[in-house]
Design a protein that fits this description.
This protein folds into two domains: about 60 residues, Orthogonal Bundle (Arc Repressor Mutant, subunit A), CATH 1.10.10.10; about 170 residues, Beta-Lactamase (2-Layer Sandwich), CATH 3.30.450. It is of the alpha+beta class and about 250 residues long. The N terminus is likely disordered. Helices cover about 45% and strands about 20% of the residues. The longest helix has 25 residues. The radius of gyration is 19 Å and the shape is globular. The chain has ten helices and eight strands. Helix 2 packs across helix 3, helix 5 runs antiparallel to helix 10 and helix 6 crosses helix 8. InterPro entries: GAF-like_dom_sf (IPR029016), HTH_MetabolicPath_Reg (IPR050707), Tscrpt_reg_IclR_C (IPR014757), Tscrpt_reg_IclR_N (IPR005471), WH-like_DNA-bd_sf (IPR036388), WH_DNA-bd_sf (IPR036390).
C-alpha cells in the first residue's frame, strides 16, 4: 500500500494511522488489516494491539478489530466535532417540538453510544445519559444504525435482535424506525438516520419517552419531526463539506 502522498515522515505514526484508516470502514480481522494496509503481519498485529491497549481500537464479538471508544471521547472533548456542533441545537428544537427527550447515537463496534442528548425540561426525564452504551439488538436507533450495514453484519446481528429483517427493510424504505418496549419495558422511541460522506449512515437521531405518551405507534406521533430533524443535520453537514476551504 503506497502511503507516500500522506506520509508525515514519521514511519511508525504513518503505519499506525494506516491501521486506523483501515478500520474506518468497519471491523477487520488481522488478515484483513494486513491486506488493506500492506503492513507485514507482525507489524499490523503489534500496532493494533498497542492501539487496543490505549482504547483507540477494540474488538467486536467475532474478535475483529474495530475503532475504540477513546476516539469518540477525544472527539467530544475537543469541542470541534462537526456532528455534535450541528446536532446539538437541532436536538433542543426536537425536544421542544415533541415534548420528549432527544438523543444522538453513534455505533461503536457491537454497541451504540449516546453522544448527545436534550432532556425534557420538566416532569419525568426519560433521556439516556451521554456516554451510555446500549445494545445494537434493540431499540429504534439500533434499527437505524444497522439497517444500511452490509448483509453479513445484518445477518449476524439479527440472531439476537428484538427486531426482524423485515423491520429493517421497512426502515430503509421509509427512513425512520420505531420501537415499543424493545430495550426497556414501558419505553418507546422513534429514530432516523444521519448520513456522512458517500451517504453512509454515521448516526441516528431519536426521541424517546413512556408508552403513556408515545403510545404503541410512536411513529404516527413523531416520525415527521424526527425525520425533519435528521434532514436538518444532514443538510448542515453536507453544506460544510461543500464549503470552499479558507484561502
Amino acid at each position: 500500500m503506497d502511503n507516500s502522498s500522506s506520509s508525515s515522515g514519521v514511519g511508525v505514526l504513518d503505519k499506525t494511522m494506516s491501521v486506523l484508516d483501515a478500520l474506518e470502514s468497519g471491523p477487520a480481522s488481522l488478515a484483513q488489516l494486513v491486506r488493506i494496509t500492506g503492513l507485514a503481519r507482525p507489524t499490523a498485529h503489534r500496532l493494533a494491539v498497542a492501539l487496543e491497549r490505549h482504547r483507540m481500537v477494540t474488538r467486536d464479538s467475532q474478535g475483529r478489530f474495530v475503532l475504540g471508544p477513546r476516539l469518540g471521547e477525544l472527539s467530544i472533548a475537543t469541542g470541534e466535532d462537526r456532528l455534535l456542533a450541528v446536532a446539538s441545537p437541532v436536538l433542543v428544537q426536537l425536544r421542544d417540538l415533541t415534548g420528549e427527550s432527544a438523543q444522538l447515537y453513534r455505533r461503536q463496534g457491537d454497541v451504540r453510544v449516546c453522544v448527545a442528548a436534550a432532556e425534557r425540561t420538566s416532569g419525568l426525564r426519560d433521556t439516556v445519559p451521554v456516554g451510555s452504551e446500549l445494545p445494537m439488538t434493540a431499540g429504534s436507533a439500533a434499527q437505524v444504525l444497522l439497517a444500511w450495514e452490509d448483509s453479513e453484519r445484518i445477518r449476524r446481528a439479527l440472531v439476537h435482535a428484538q427486531f426482524s429483517g423485515t423491520a429493517l427493510a421497512q426502515v430503509r424504505r421509509r427512513r425512520w424506525a420505531q420501537s415499543v418496549g424493545e430495550r426497556e419495558q414501558g419505553v418507546a422511541s422513534v429514530s432516523a438516520p444521519i448520513s456522512g460522506p458517500g451517504g453512509r449512515v454515521i448516526a441516528a437521531v431519536s426521541v424517546s419517552g413512556p408508552l403513556e405518551r408515545l403510545t404503541r405507534a410512536p411513529g404516527r406521533l413523531h416520525a415527521q419531526a424526527v425525520t425533519s430533524a435528521a434532514e436538518k443535520i444532514n443538510e448542515a453537514l453536507h453544506a460544510q463539506d461543500a464549503a470552499p476551504a479558507p484561502a
